[in-house]
Amino acid sequence: MQAMSSARRALRRLLPDLGVALGVFLLLNAGGELFVGDFDTTAAWLSRPTGWLTLAAEAGLGALLLAHAWRPLQGLWRPLTIATLLLVAGWAAVDAVIYYMLIEAGRITTTALPFPASFLVVAVALALAREVAAPAPRTPWSSPRLLRCLITCAAVALLLPLVLIFTFGPTRYARSADCIVVFGAKVHSDGRPSDALADRVDEGVRLYKQGLAPIMVMSGALDSGHGGSEPASMRDRALAAGVPASAIILDEEGVNSAATVDNTRAWAHPRGATRVLAVSHYYHLPRVKLLFERAGLRTYTVPAAMKRRLRREPYFLAREMIAYHHALLVP
User: Fold this and answer.
1) If 0-12 CB within 10 Å is exposed, 13-18 middle and 19+ buried, where does residue 38 land?
2) Nearest to residue 233, comparing CAs of 215, 246, 221, 247?
3) DSSP-H helix ranges across 36-134
C-alpha cells in the first residue's frame, strides 16, 4: 500500500512536466500552422473544428500549461484552464464513442485491440485538469527539475508516434476513393517482390477488386544495388492477380514516402482527384496519413495484411518513430 502511495505521489509530481510536453506540442502546432501553413497535426488525436478560433484555443491552452508548470495558476486562469481541459476530455470521449459505433457498424475494422488514441487524450486531459485544480507540491526550478522535465518531454515525444502506430496504424478505413496508392518496399534481384512488398500489393488488389477505386498507383524506386524496379514488380504481381494494365500507373520516382505523396498529388490535382486509399504496413500509416493530409488529399489508410510477421519489424517500428517526427517538423 505504501509503495502504491509513493508511486501515486511520484506520478503527481510528473504531471506539470507532462503539461509542459503537451504545451510545447500545442504551441508547435499552432506556430507551424500560422507561419508555415498545413502544419497542425492535433486532428490525429482529436476531431475538432478547424479555423482560427480552434488554433487560438490550442495556443492558449499550450501557453497556460507552460505557465502552470512554472507556477500554479491563480485567479480566473485556473478555472479557464480546467474548463478547457474538461472540454478536451469530453470531446475525446465522444471521439471514442464514435470509433466504437463505426466498428459496430462495420465501417472500420482493426487487427489490434480496439483501443483508440482518444482514450489517452481523455486520461491526460482529466489528469491535468485535476493537477491544475489541486496542484501537487513542487520543488523550485533547478537543474535536477529541469533535467526531469526534459526527460519527460523526450519520453512523450517518443511515445506519440508509437501510440498512433499501435492504435491508428492497424485500423482499416477502406472507403471509395479516386485511386489506391500502394507504397513500395524491397524487390529481389530476380524481380520477385519481398514479403513486405507482396503484402502491400495483395492488399491493394483486394481493394481494387472490391470496386473501391478505379486506379492503382504503384509507387516505389529502382533498387540502388541491382537496379530492379519496385513498381514493375508490383505491376507484374497485380496483373497476375487479374488487375488490367489500364488500371495501373507506375511511379518509379517514389524514392521515399514524401516523394510518393508529392507524385500522387501531381497526378491527382489536374484530374480533380481528391480521395486516396493508401496501402502500406501498419507502422508506416500514421506518417503516410500526415503527409497526404498536408498535401491536401483526403486519405483513408488500409494496413496490409501480413502473411507472416516481418523479420525486421522491430527495426521498422524504431525507424518510423524517428521518421514521423521528421515528417512532423519538416513539412
Assistant:
1) exposed
2) 221
3) 52-70, 77-104, 118-133
- 276 touches 300 (CB < 8 A): yes
Tell me yes or no: is domain 173-329 CATH 3.40.50.620. yes
**Which residues in the chain belong to E strands, given as ranges?**
109-110, 171-172, 179-183, 216-219, 248-251, 275-280, 298-303
d(CA 79, CA 197): 53
Is residue 121 exposed (0-12), middle (13-18) or buried (19+ Cβ within 10 Å)? buried
DSSP state of 212: S
What strand order describes the sheet that includes 216-219? 248-251, 216-219, 179-183, 275-280, 298-303
Report the DSSP pairing between strands 171-172 and 109-110: antiparallel
Give the whole-number percent of the chain exceeding pLDDT 70: 97
Whole-number percent of the chain with pLDDT over 90: 77
Domain boundaries, the chain: 2-167, 173-329
Question: pLDDT class for 331, splitting at 50, 70, 90?
Answer: low
Q: How far, rounded to the nearest angstrom, does the alpha carbon of residue 300 sit from its chain's CA centroid?
A: 12
Q: Hey, what's the cell of 69? A: 508548470
Contact by Cβ (8 Å): 242, 201: no
The answer to whether the pTM exceeds 0.70 is yes
Residue 305 has pLDDT above 90, yes or no: yes
